[in-house]
Design a protein that fits this description.
Number of domains: 3
Strand content: 5-15%
CATH topology of the largest domain: Rossmann fold
CATH class of the largest domain: Alpha Beta
GO molecular function: ATP binding
Largest sheet: 5 strands, parallel
GO biological process, one term: phosphorelay signal transduction system
Pfam families: AAA_lid_14, Response_reg, Sigma54_activat
Organism: Chryseobacterium lacus
Oligomer: single chain
Keywords: ATP-binding, Nucleotide-binding, Phosphoprotein
Order of helices and strands: EHEHEHEHEHHEHEHEEHEHEEEHHEHHHH
Structural class: alpha/beta
Number of helices: 16
């Protein structure tokens, strides 16, 4: 049951207030504090739906209680009452954050109305906060395949960055070694963004031949080159109103880089073999395992494109730097693999986890996932340190 705190040094008044309000305001428990200091101690211990406080009190005045309580718990709702009221005092209380100010002798109807309105305000604020939290939680839901797992400081730093940048349209360059989870970061940013209802289109720049990368990104028209038997939409156009993820951007040819730079500058693309320009509204995320400064100095990557892509840069460290996450990752992969195979989840005993934590994971999380699958197939239940020694060569 929610509670209302009455802070009043005159017992007769606090008793009357409690009696009248408890008849009018149902489903609330009333707590009495006899001075401001006692009131503050109550607020320290628990949350109140409403605080009704006198101003002139011993030990701690109502105005000081208001200031200190709102510093401690800014969402607390106050209705102030005083027999020494003047306009300046009322204005000061409202400036400090009070919901209302009522002078003595108290108009009971005015008090009841004020208290009901204050409680409705508090209830609406609480519901709004709940909806905001629920909405944020929904946005954070990512396909299990792309779920980020762990509680290491390194991962928390990444998650904090994602929380800060996701709601913007800023371009993000995600760096780090192969298999560390750069793709997961990209999916988390998209899932938490306002574009989450739109498409997320992925392009592995390293897997597409340089002569076809333009067609892949910007599309082509029929007959524009040998094999172009029909018009084709490019990835930028397919990602309209959503996100495009350019993975391994460091492997893109200089010719394609120039075209991507133009697309970012003008928010337009031209299909290969066409003079037509297509306007696109796309957020660009990119990833690379390369040292981009070294690539720029070697003339393999355009510096102007790098600066366009790296408005925000997120570094994903190797598993070697977050080994405390290995246990959670093993349990996570074991559950996913069991679901995929339709089997019960296998347990890894503590010594098996310790053995895995001692390895040097050059292939990072991707390698760990493969090893977990191997141990589930070949090992016992629970998977033991002996299984790790037998089936993992490091």
């Amino acid at each position: 049951m929610q509670k209302i705190l009455i802070v009043e040094d005159e017992k007769a008044i606090s008793g009357v207030l409690q009696s009248i309000l408890s008849d009018e305001i149902k489903d609330y428990e009333f707590i009495i504090a006899e001075d401001g200091l006692e009131g503050y101690k109550n607020i320290e211990k628990e949350d109140f739906a409403l605080v009704i406080s006198d101003i002139k009190m011993p030990k701690l005045s109502g105005t000081e209680l208001l200031k200190q309580a709102l510093q401690l718990k800014p969402d607390t709702t106050f209705v102030m009452i005083s027999g020494h009221a003047d306009i300046d005092m009322a204005v000061d209380c409202l400036k400090e954050g009070a919901y209302d100010f009522i002078s003595k002798p108290i108009d009971i109807n005015r008090l009841i109305t004020s208290v009901k309105n204050a409680l409705n305000k508090e209830k609406l604020a609480s519901e709004n906060k709940h909806l905001q939290t629920e909405n944020k939680t929904l946005k954070k839901k990512v396909n299990k395949k792309y779920q980020m797992v762990g509680e290491s400081p390194a991962l928390k730093k990444i998650q904090d960055m994602i929380d800060k940048v996701a709601s913007s349209d800023a371009r993000v360059l995600i760096t780090g070694p192969n298999g560390a989870g750069k793709e997961l970061v990209a999916h988390a940013i998209h899932a938490q963004s306002d574009r989450s209802k739109g498409p997320m289109i992925e392009v592995n720049c390293a897997a597409i031949p340089s002569e076809l990368i333009e067609s892949e990104l910007f599309g082509h028209v029929k007959g524009s080159f040998t094999g172009a038997i029909k018009d084709k939409q490019g990835k930028f156009e397919l990602a309209n109103n959503g996100t495009i993820f350019l993975d391994e951007i460091g492997d893109m040819s200089l010719v394609a880089q120039a075209k991507v730079l133009r697309a970012l500058q003008e928010s337009k693309v031209s299909p290969v073999g066409s003079d037509k320009e297509i306007k696109v509204d796309v957020r660009v995320l990119a990833a690379t395992n390369k040292n981009m400064q070294a690539e720029i100095e070697a003339g393999r990557f355009r510096e102007d494109l790098y600066h366009r892509l790296s408005v925000i840069e997120i570094y994903v460290p190797p598993l070697e730097e977050r080994k405390e996450d290995i246990q959670m990752l093993v349990e996570h992969f074991a559950k996913i693999i069991a679901d995929e195979q339709g089997n019960a989840t296998k347990v890894f005993d503590p010594e098996a986890i310790k053995s895995l934590q001692n390895f040097n994971w050059t292939g990072n999380i991707r390698e760990l996932r493969n090893i977990v699958e191997r141990l589930i197939i070949l090992g016992g239940n629970p998977v033991s340190a002996e299984d790790v020694a037998a089936f993992v060569r490091k």
